[in-house]
Amino acid sequence: MKKLLLKFVLSLFMALPVSAKDNTLELTSYGSFLHSEKVPDALFFFSKIEKNDSFELRKALRNHKINKIVLSSRGGSVFEGLQMAGIIHDKGLTTYIPKKGLDGSGNCASACAFMFFGGNTRVIGGKLGVHQFYSQDSKAKVEVTKVEKEALFTVSEIIGFLNEFETPPFVFEKMFQQSDMYYFTKKEVSQLQSNVSELQNDNIKKIEMFIENLIKEINKDTIVTALNKKNDAVKKNPVHKKKCTNNAKHCADKSLCVMATYGGAYGKLWSVNPQNKKYVTEAKARGLACGVPYKVSEKKCYSDPKQCKDIEICKQATFFESNSIKKWNASIPYYNKYVIEAKARGLTCGVISNFSNENCAQDARQCANSDLCKMATNTKNSIRYWSTTSYYRKYADEAKRRGFKCGVEETKKINKSVIKGIQSKLNFLNCKAGPADGAIGKRTLSALLRWKAVGGNYHVGEINYYLFEKLSKSKVSCQYHGYNEVSYNDGSFYKGNFLKGRYHGHGILKYADGSIYDGKFVRNKIQGYGKFKYPNGDVYEGNFKDGTFHTYGKFRWINGDVYMGNWVNGERTGQGKYTWANGQTYNGPWKNGRMLR
User: Which of 192, 216, 262, 597 has the least CB density, counted as fewest CB within 10 Å?
Assistant: First the structure.
């Protein structure tokens, strides 16, 4: 009976404003939040997290000078929980889990935990619990999964929020690998709290005393009586509808697509979560695309080129150079298998061969002399230079080994006026090359390295008229600071934050090969949380350290396989879960990328 009474009281609080005239505690409700003039600088949260609670939180913060959020909730909407966690973090509020809640000990669990971690000062008097958000067998988890899918939130986005709150890494392990609710131990709680001294004992006693008084008032029915005076007009009109979450055939097209797909910034894909298979099947049966772009029709094509149709094999085996000439994509191991299969079928795929020896495309040592110089050099304004890109450099090295000059003039013959021009351009770009005296010294070379470090198209040892031209057209400053967008000569692109000419903070970097990184940089290094998409469609989302996968992350292969768990220096190491496209799973320890069965 007591639990039913508490539930009834809370439902009334969420529905009606309560003034000091109507009850002794001077309560006002904002969605699931309660405010009392007895503790004017705090908001209390004892209920299920529901739709529009984030709106009500903002409303309460506008109406009162709040610096503390008291949390004792078993969770609810993941979307609202994360939204409110962001608000709490941005406002620098304190979060406190009380020793007592309205239905027992203080208990902040599931989506409520996000709100707790959002606090600037975090103090735990009761219990803090987390659990997995994807499951096939747990009823509690399935309910959260449905809420999460409706809100379009993914595990990677949850990790993004928690990283922003500087949440300890061990929380991720407990959150994503527990089949049941996990409550942190006393030892773990000490690591989860922060700035504890800022919430003084007097404030804690005041909060706990208020909760005791609230429970007494509820037991005396005084609040129920007061609320009923204002609730005479409230009518209960339960509506029973067939729910889309129970049967895919009951979904409207729009809702069906929400449940059947995932993704966002890089385009939508059909969900591979077994929970959503019925929605994918129903969407395809209705002929809905749901925003999923065209991709290879046979999934096996991604792992076995022999399964590809001719048009698919050519798409994977070739690429266009900047001069719109189609080339074999043989320099990248992943695509080379498609090149081999295309040639085995006798397909040209629109590639025009310029080699007297076909093996020249893979091995510079097999090239004829005339072919070698074509591959080893570039020509700009009638001046020939050695190729310096990673793929063509092997041809330049082979040409030099054979003693060929291939029409390339030596650096020592560069006009002194060109060197002065290079120095002037470096100074214009704030790279500090010193006086433009036409002499190549340490300051000039250091300036070139600084320009290269911020994205300048400079190859060590290249000092010629071609370099002068690149500097003349460059917008890459050594002193980029704050937000900027930069396009590079090799086709790569960066938009985001700079610090003294280096990538720093959030940014998006598109590489020349089509790879895309969207996430955090620290002084030109990929560091922190981010998302990396490979040219073939594989995607990693999670933490990085010095440009490698580290701590916790999720890797999704284009064939539908998924790994979610711990990483150390780019290798799957620690606890992790691997899910194959056919639904089979392995959940256990890993070391250096291998399962420890």
Answer: 597
